[in-house]
Amino acid sequence: MRTTTRLAAFLTAACLAGAVQAADPVKVGFLSTLSGPSAAIGLDIRDAFELAVKLNGGKLGGLPAQVIVADDQMNPDVAKQLIERLLKRDRVDIVTGIVFTNVMLAVAPAVFESKTFLVSANSTPAAYSGEGCSPWFFSTSWQNDGVHEAGGKFMQDSGYKSVVLVAPNYPAGKDALTGFKRFYKGTVIDEIYTKLGQLDYAAELAQIRAARPDAMYVFLPGGMGVNFVKQYVASGLNKTIPLVGPGFSADEDLIKAVGEPMVGMYNTSHWAHDLDNAANKRFVTEFQKAYGRLPTLYASQGYDAAQLIDAAIRDVKGKIEDKDALRKALRAANFKSVRGDFKLNVNGVPIQSYYLRRVVKEPSGRITNKLQATVLSAHPDAYVGACKLK
Amino acid sequence: MDWILLLEQTLNGLQFGLMLFLLAAGLTLVFGIMDMINLAHGSLYMVGAYLAATLLAYTGSFTVAVLGALAGTALFGALLEVSLLRTLYQRDHLTQVLATFALILIINEGTRIIWGSQALLLNAPDALSGPVELFPGLTYPAYRLLIIGVGLAVAVALYLLVAHTRVGMLVRAGASNREMALTMGVNVKRLFTAVFATGAALSALAGAMLGPLLAVQVGMGESILILAFVVIVIGGIGSIRGALVGALLVGFVDTLGRTLLPMSLRSVLPPMVASNLGPALASILIYVLMAAVLFWRPQGLFPARG
After folding, report:
1. What's the rounded Cα separation, in Å, for the pair A52 and A302?
2. Percent of chain A with pLDDT over 70
3. How many of the other CB atoms lie within 10 Å of CB of B176?
4. Which of B11, B120, B126, B129 to probe by mutation at the A interface, max A CB count within 10 Å?
5. A164 pLDDT above the threshold of 80
6. Alpha carbon distance B141, B8 (integer Å)
7. Using only C-alpha atoms, what is the Rg of chain A?
8. Contacts with B112 from chain A: Cβ below 8 Å
9. A291 touches chain B (CB under 8 A)
């Protein structure tokens, strides 16, 4: 008799526990580059994403969040296998975290086909912004051309008559220089495409020295940028030819690696850690408290990705099975972005402002980026016109 | 054509070639003398770079870091030879390839476990982090000059060692006819261990010197190992002289090809096509070179076996 009661009590308790857990968790597949020389990007996005979830009490939109992290090693083949696992075995509701465009182009078709939402916290290729736009794709970063359009505009406005451009030989590299040239009307003496992942730039630096441009614009993300900037300084070119780059080519990770010689470098970004708004202040403070370093622009994108997912799930009251409603909610982007003004266009790509930042040495001796001016405001991407979505 | 550009590229090619030589020298000796294909040679290069980065973080001295990495990797190489590779000499090449490939995986994972998967920071000493003005119009990074100096010094030292000492004589004898050297009473066991440890130290030197220019990361050995194999195939397996010539050839062709090829293509093709074709062609140039050498001189430029 006693055992039966105990069993019954146990069963009731188990049922109750089950009922509490009945709110199914939202599963987020976080596929990102977490090893190799460009690991810093993926780690920053991951740290910021996890920070946002943590500040939310471990939840996204009221549902317990389960973030499944996978490392693509910047390798499209590895990424393809991992995405199969995330979609088929783990059955994730949302995919995010992808850093590199070559990885994005390899995995996105499978994600779209399985009718899973892809919230990109970085790569936003032209292929999914225009004619090839997808109802499953949303971005909390910037269309691949975006920061480079701002870079081109800044260099045009600054009166540099000739430039040499450097980018890796892969889709985002071509996107970047296309974006740059859309706004820069001076002479492009040379466009140098290097192997993706190249780390020694001696040959290219010699070529730049011989070309004698007014200024340089480089798009080299991750470890490539760290090495390029270090070698640019070591070759003494920074004394004669000013170097301008997108925000991530002069962000906190690079400043830490290169230090003093970077002071004075201009760069363009959709975000700055000293942007004056409440959401950003909280993000920068909490990030520093949690990880003991300043966030990079990549981190801001990861944080906003989590915020976007959170807001959308909250708006549909946790009913993530209703994909049409969730899509509308994602598109509405009902949250306070750390970059201030932020809207999503019909193709899921942000309409946002781009700023000019400059690396400065503060009186305290800390070297960091300082916000200078707005280069483009409420700027939509160049491809949205070709997107048929409504 | 700008002659300053040409000169700077020549220096770059020399610098890259000399570092490749350090790697290829060990590889070619092990291959030539012990008839052993050691795919894990690149792992020794990685171990050298990691040791240097760690020692630099602890001691703060670049010289100590490089010398410590040399000694540490030589010891690691010797242990590897005595404990494992020694048993592979009698086996066929396929077994050696499989076993040393397994070693790559084990050493990579071991490195990941000890040091983590993020790249380590290995910076050149502050005094050498800036440029040096060689003459008006050409400034060149001081650190790359150091690499050229070290590379040349090692090349000369190796030449003296192999061509003018008793040990060198044994090494040459082993490379040109192993069986004969054996029957003449050479203590092969000790010779093999010494050669292997020297090869390990040389590749560690390359790893430690290139660390500040590249990145100290897991898997850094594999990409450069392929180039080292190209070098020894071009130069002739077992020949130090061949390794030097082969390494410099590959260094020059790669560096000059990367700039001159796209430039010359641009003068004959539309810019869009040229910018697509140039980098692609430049990256296969050294393999074209290897194919050409194999076609006309299948033994390599300086075959060790007569």
Report:
1. 9
2. 94
3. 17
4. B129
5. yes
6. 10
7. 22
8. 35
9. no
User: What is the helix (H) or strand (E) element at residue A69, kind and residue range?
Assistant: strand A63-71
Over the stretch A82-110, which tens digit does the pLDDT of each residue have?
A: 999 999 999 999 999 999 999 999 999 99
Encode pLDDT of A165-190 as tens digits.
Answer: 999 988 888 888 989 999 999 999 98
Phi, psi angles (nearest 5°) of residue A120: -80, 130
Q: What stretches of chain A show up as alpha helix (H) in DSSP?
A: 2-21, 39-55, 76-84, 101-113, 146-157, 171-183, 202-211, 222-234, 252-258, 278-291, 297-315, 323-332
Residue A157: which residues within 8 A CB-CB, separation 6 or more?
none
* pLDDT at position A230: 87
Among A125, A48, A115, A34, smallest CA distance to A79 is for A34
C-alpha distances in angstroms, A206 versus A170, A193, A200, A232, B26? Answer: 22, 14, 12, 10, 31
* Residues of B in Cβ contact (< 8 Å) with A226: 215
Q: Determine the Cα–Cα distance for residues A266 and A269; give it in Å rounded to an integer.
A: 10
Neighbours of B212 (CB within 10 A): 26
ipTM of this complex: 0.84
Q: Which residues of chain B are under the pLDDT cut of 50?
A: 306
Q: Give the number of other CB atoms < 10 A from CB of residue B244.
A: 24
A331 pLDDT above the threshold of 70: yes
pTM above 0.95, yes or no: no
